[in-house]
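ASSEMBLY PREDICTION REQUEST
Request ID: AP-0331
Submitted by: J.K., bench scientist
Number of chains: two
Total residues: 228
Priority: normal
Notes: Please return the full assembly, not individual chains.
Input sequences:
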Amino acid sequence: DSGVTQTPKHLITATGQRVTLRCSPRSGDLSVYWYQQSLDQGLQFLIQYYNGEERAKGNILERFSAQQFPDLHSELNLSSLELGDSALYFCASSVAGTPEETQYFGPGTRLLVL
Amino acid sequence: DAKTTQPNSMESNEEEPVHLPCNHSTISGTDYIHWYRQLPSQGPEYVIHGLTSNVNNRMASLAIAEDRKSSTLILHRATLRDAAVYYCILLHMYSGGGADGLTFGKGTHLIIQP
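STATUS: Completed
Returned structure:
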């Protein structure tokens, strides 16, 4: 158990819909990362937050957005969903978001878009 | 971003040492070398990381070449639970001290034979 929690575990929805994925970092961690893992693209970094502020952006689509709240939990919002958005979405956290730190990954949310 | 090259798959016998190679010939001076692994149906898990010197922890050892253009992850005594995809990742430090998220390649699929 990494200490990072993600809800829900599974999500099934239809094309065109919007969903919100939630992540609670490990106690004491200020930085949160979101990753997407699909069969064809592998594991891709989407976005990073540190203490409520966006710090780095990866391959995140414009239809996707995220935020980190004052209590440090984070939400990833996916809108206008397409079949290709079906994937595992992982959240990770680290203390300060620096490159020498370990990132601790949650168990993931499996999204299926029908 | 500096890229890494790993063999697609490797096979080893249980209770024998495993050496997983990684080439990163375009590494820059502030790039940290991280290794993560992903067991089936789980999120990625930190294994080890280093900058210039060899590193040891309870899970593995990391041997870094003197020119830093390659590294080797060493599992001293593989068990069936070590069967996973192992990712070698370079994490670049920006001038402000921050870093991007992890860029996962295809990794090495490690198969352990009983």
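REVIEWER COMMENTS: The mean pLDDT of chain B is 91.
SIGN-OFF: pending second reviewer
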